[in-house]
Amino acid sequence: MNIKEEISNFKSMVNSYKLTSLIITANNIGIFNCLNEKVKDLKQISNEVEIPYDRIEPILNALVFNKIINKNEVGYFLDEYRDVLLKDSKLNQTGYIDFAQTVMEKYKNLENAIKDNNFSFNNFKELTEKQAESFMKGMQSNAMPQAEYIASKYNFENHNILDIGAGAGTYLITVAKEYKSVKGKMIDLPQVSKIQNKNIEKENLMDRLVSIACDYNHDFPSGNYDDVFLFAVIHQEPRENVRKLLNNIYNILKPNGKLFLTSFFLNDDKISPEFSVQFAVEMLANSKEGKVYTHSEIKGLLEDSKFSNIERIDEIPSSATLYIATK
User: Fold this and answer.
1) What DSSP state is assigned to residue 321?
2) Which of 75, 110, 273, 285 has the most CB atoms lying inside 10 A of its own CB?
3) 228 near 185, Cβ under 8 Å?
4) Distance between CA 204 and CA 206 in Å, rounded?
5) Which listed CATH number (3.40.390.10, 1.20.1270.20, 1.10.10.10, 3.40.50.1000) goes with 3-87?
6) What was the pLDDT predicted at 121?
7) Torsion angle of alpha carbons 55, 60, 65, 70, nearest 10°?
8) Which CATH superfamily is domain 101-326 in?
9) How much is the pLDDT for 132?
């Protein structure tokens, strides 16, 4: 690569924020919600989003240039990304855009977080219920493909399941809908637990599922469970908390019970895979004590907690890795 190519590539990297900001803005002002496979002209879109056409046109054309939406001689429409952006699509990813906006706000303080580890804090504990709902909407779009994968690949018939740090409740709800004999409990912080119970009620699963407010680091629940779900949790915690949490999980599992655990793990070189390397930086801005663990580290922690038959599954539909460990 010659110097001109280096400069061009470097500028492209620096300018990547522009496309992210464009997508977030388009979502916030309602462009994706008003577009569908039917062509709409500039005036129609302007009227629907209630923004003058001369202010909206550059945004639409930039989206076309980046091949996110399409344009013909009549107007604008969705084609290639219709399943991703159509508001009624099962695969709709606009929730992930909300999630990205939350993360970008944290990135603005990355320098402060690096210089002063007291600057970062566990943002989940500070979320209002409204902020939690927005954050969980984004997490839902991430979790659904993984939840469907787990529900289809593993047998949970007649199982009693504990879901720790359950987020939107996507995993346990998905499994409970697939297996009518499943019963379970979610635990999370108070503002999140309220939303989980709303989601349980929405799916008419109140007779089998419940969420309770609980800080697992200080008030771990008792019980006897066939499975424990621990999805996208351990990167929020320092090593000593993870070790304590895994020990507590081991103690409440029935003999031969299983722990299902996901996170974004680094290879031992700590410079791959790409998503985990970037996520390790994100954790600096998001959490005072959280970290991204290597595969060797999580395997060692599971072994220290007496788990056996530790299985690593990389092919789940995500940048995360699934670990299954048996008591």
Assistant:
1) E
2) 285
3) no
4) 6
5) 1.10.10.10
6) 57
7) -160
8) Vaccinia Virus protein VP39 (3.40.50.150)
9) 63
What is the value of pTM for the model shown?
0.85
Average pLDDT, the chain: 91
Say which residue the tokens 């709303």 belong to: 198
Domain spans, the chain: 3-87, 101-326
Rounded Cα distance, 268 and 293, in Å: 9
Q: What is the pLDDT of residues 178-222, one digit of tens each?
A: 999 999 999 998 888 998 999 999 999 999 999 999 999 998 999
Token pair of 45, please?
């879109």
Contact 297, 235 (CB under 8 A): no
Residues near 266 by beta carbon (within 8 Å), at least 6 away in sequence: 272, 273, 276, 277, 280, 292, 293, 294, 295
Backbone φ and ψ for 73, nearest 5 degrees, come out as -70, -15
Lookup result for tokens 């005072």: 288
- The residues of the chain scoring below 50 in pLDDT are none
Q: Is the peptide bond before 221 cis (omega within 30 degrees of 0)?
A: no
Predicted confidence (pLDDT) per residue in 82-123, tens digit: 988 988 887 788 878 887 887 888 888 888 888 887 776 555
Going from the C-alpha of 240 to that of each of 43, 111, 123, 237, the distances in angstroms are 58, 26, 20, 8
